[in-house]
Amino acid sequence: MDVPGLAALNKGGAAEVDGVSCPSAGNCAVGGDYRDRHHNEQGFVAGERHGRWGKAIPVPGLAALNVGGGAGVEQVSCGSAGNCLAGGSYAYDGSGSRYSSFLVAERGGRWGKVVDLQRDGDVDSISCSSAGNCVAAGGAAGGIGFYAFVGDAFVLQERAGRLGPVRFIPGLRKLEHFGDPAVAGSWVDSVACPSTGNCAAGGGYRDKGEKNHGFVAVERNGRWGKAIEVPGLATLDKGRNAEVYSVSCGTAGNCVAGGSSGGRAFVTVERNGRWGPAMPVPGLNALNNGGSSAVYSVSCGSAGNCAAAGSYRDPHRHWQPFVASENNGGWSTAIPLPGLAALNKGGAAEVSEVSCPSAGNCAAGGDYADRSRHHQGFVIIERNGAWGRAIPVPGLRAQNKGGSASAFSVSCPSPGRCAAAGYYSNRPHHYQGFVVAQIH
């Protein structure tokens, strides 16, 4: 279904849902962006309570800040039903090229006014361990033009509903070898908090030689330790570019991170507070003959039981999604997502997100190119350790007359009760946001 009320806001015809979070079955929140009648990008949020979606609303107060017409909600996370935190960025100057980050909180089912972090950059990830206890993370921009994304990785704590100050993750400047701030910098791609005060973050940093590296950092009992380069990554990628794209934790001190290093997908595991060396995803070389690959999303149903999902380029140079599972601390061989090759006749598929509410029970979503090379959204379910077949998002193909759709975000509060959200094109270059629920 279309996000209720979004079409009325989306006069400029370019809306999408970028994040969905469901703390319990039938209670979710989404966030994203749309174009208003003046073709300015604006951010929106919408909530589901007891299985019924309310209307999308503009982020309260954001339009007044967004003078450059480039705003959107990038991430949303909910600690409990009706208690969520969303964040993203907005353009604060008339050129539309300078962006600042913001947060907005939902309390008791009501969204409050936007909080301007007054920090150039973007909120890229949010994780809430309980209502009013969240961590937001991202990158603070430090340059302009080509280097506009270069700056400093930051985190911001919310405790008992109160937002603290923006803090930079310690240790990153040393990893960057104190390079020129116009070249060297860092950013967070993902943060995961299994309990209040205990989180893990991952992302990338650029050194003075303009090479990217992947890092992880851990918060224990409310205190962030120094960021470290993912152990073994320099050996794995032989000095080529690397980045951590996703982090998930089964319990405090037991996490998994995944990403890409030198064009090869990798995972690294934290056990009892200690990160092990990065390892290539098992079996992936057999699928892609050593070609390009990346882990885009990881999710842990419990400590030692996780899933890593991403994409690889097959010998025909087609992009195909894969998943690999960690069971009781051991990784299985990566497999192509079942059923997707039959859908992906256009040879361009990727998985965007995987969500695992318990060990062996997950859902994932993404997109593929059909025989007409139109992009369609898909979802796939794992039950009791066995993956089913990928299917097109029910009802989406008929709506997607413009040929561009994706199930961009997935959230599962319990096995068999998931939600996916994303976008489709009801005519060429005209986009709408959707949500879909797994009902059994």
Verbal overview:
- The chain has 7 helices and 36 strands.
- By secondary structure, it is mainly β.
- A hairpin with a 5-residue loop joins strand 30 (361-369) and strand 31 (375-383).
- The chain starts with 5 loop residues before the first helix and ends with a strand.
- It folds into 3 domains: 1-120; 132-336, no CATH class; 337-440, no CATH class.
- It is globular.
- The strands form 7 sheets. Strands 6, 7, 8, 9, 10, 11, 12 and 13 form an 8-stranded antiparallel β-sheet that branches. Strands 1, 2, 3, 4 and 5 form a 5-stranded antiparallel β-sheet that branches. Strands 14, 15, 16, 17 and 18 form a 5-stranded antiparallel β-sheet that branches.
Strand and helix map with partners:
Blueprint: H1 6-9, E1 16-24, E2 27-35, E3 41-49, E4 52-53, E5 57-58, H2 62-65, E6 72-80, E7 83-91, E8 99-107, E9 110-111, E10 115-130, E11 133-141, E12 151-159, E13 162-168, H3 172-175, E14 185-195, E15 198-206, E16 212-220, E17 223-224, E18 228-229, H4 233-237, E19 242-251, E20 254-261, E21 264-271, E22 274-275, E23 279-280, H5 284-288, E24 293-302, E25 305-313, E26 319-327, E27 330-331, E28 335-336, H6 340-343, E29 350-358, E30 361-369, E31 375-383, E32 386-387, E33 391-392, H7 396-399, E34 406-414, E35 417-427, E36 430-437
Please state roughly what percent of the residues sit in beta strands, choosing from under 5%, 5-15%, 15-25%, 25-35%, 35-45% or over 45%.
over 45%
Mean pLDDT: 93
Poorly predicted runs of 5 or more residues: 142-149
Distance between the termini: 17 Å
Helix content: under 10%
Structural class computed from helices and strand pairing: mainly beta
**What's the alpha carbon Rg, rounded to whole Å?**
20 Å
In DSSP terms (H or I, runs of 4 or more residues), the helix count works out at 7
Number of domains: 3
Biggest sheet descriptor: 8 strands, antiparallel
Number of DSSP strand runs:
36
- The best one-word shape is globular
